[in-house]
Amino acid sequence: MHRISSWILLVAALYVTGPTHATPEEPAPDEKPTPHIALVLPLKSAVFGRAAEAVQQGFLAAAKTQPNSIPVRVYGSFDESKDIVALYQHAVSSGARAVVGPLTRNGVATLTAYPEISVPTLALNIAEARGTDKLYFFGLTAEVEARQIARFAAAANLHNATVINSGTPLSSRLAQAFSEEWKTLGRSLATEILYSTNPATLADLPVGDGNMIFLAANAEAARMIRPYLSPALPVYSTSQIFNGNTDPLTNFDLNDIRFVDMPWLLQPDHPAVMIYPRASPPLEPDMERLYALGIDAFRLVQIMLNDSYGAGLPLDGVTGHIKLNDSRQFLRAAIPGLFKQGLGLTPEEAAILDAPLPSASGVPATDTTQP
């Protein structure tokens, strides 16, 4: 089986709710080359097809907001590790001015080894190798978020972390990424707890100034664990615990957990987010993240086509704040979130909820029950 980024492994087998954009027919071999952007995705894959459809929807939705851009042509792959080079060659010979894809990690590794990358190419996953003058990388990985959480917690003057691992492969990778970054920052690890269903393992955790918990878990596991944690301990996690704000009653068990996620989910009413159309009907949160990846992939390939890296970057994308490093990787920084009253909010929104209500006179009410 292909290996895709650890985060996408969790969502690749999910089903998109509702219809998706149809994949255009590929041109005949003798068709005259026509300038276009080639979107190469594993749309014909039984494993990754649904994830690819969500990326495609977002990419084409963003393209519709730029009517003066050259057209997009979609190329569907069965198995990116086997057919990506042939699809790439076909796209270029058909007139592609830029290529976006592949999506899977194995597909990206295969294309990275291809020595004839001839047009600006944006791979939608992260590779171990460096990019070239025409090959760039952009993807969503949960490990990056775990490292970002470590930096946030260190900036909050926390220095001693307990890591709770729920036992899944993804949880273990998140725990490892956080721990590595935490140690790099000169902080201490109290312990790592492998939690199954025994709350006794969560007893006697270090409490006091400077202590914290990193919860390497998804929303379901986090809801089981959170009630057993001391309210005095700051708790941090990744976007894995945020499934949107459609069910505040379910989210109440996550109150006061700090996490990170993309503006597309945390700030849906932000003007820079609202300019892009939503899928209709809405997708599941994990598929929405892939849809957002498609939107920002379109925006980044426009920068590549126009060679406007200086003016276009950093980019305030719907997936986060995006900048380019020396390895030709577009790095995404998510935005901080906090659960309050069963809602995942930005810190600014949470502060508004915590603000005292004004009295009838317009002066903030005071607590008259205290002496």
Task: Give the mean pLDDT.
Answer: 89
The named CATH superfamily of the domain at 151-265: Response regulator
List the total number of helices.
13
Q: What structural class do you assign from the helix and strand content?
A: alpha/beta
Q: What does the overall shape look like?
A: globular
Q: Strand arrangement, largest sheet?
A: 7-6-8-9-10-14-15
Low-confidence stretches: 1-25, 365-371
Order of helices and strands: HEHEHEHEEHEHEEHEHEHHHHEEEEEH
Structure description:
This protein has helices spanning 6-9, 49-64, 80-93, 105-112, 142-155, 169-184, 219-225, 248-251, 263-266, 271-274, 285-306, 309-312, 347-354; strands spanning 36-41, 72-76, 96-100, 121-123, 135-137, 160-165, 188-194, 211-216, 235-236, 257-261, 315-316, 321-324, 330-333, 335-340, 343-345. It is α/β, with parallel strands linked by helices and 371 residues long. The protein has a seven-stranded mixed beta sheet with strand order 7-6-8-9-10-14-15. It has a five-stranded parallel beta sheet with strand order 2-1-3-4-5, with helices on both faces. It has a three-stranded antiparallel beta sheet with strand order 11-12-13. Helix 7 (219-225) links the parallel strand 8 and strand 9. Helix 2 (49-64) packs across helix 11 (285-306), helix 3 packs across helix 4 (105-112) and helix 5 (142-155) runs parallel beside helix 6 (169-184). Residues 1-25 and 365-371 have low confidence and may be disordered.
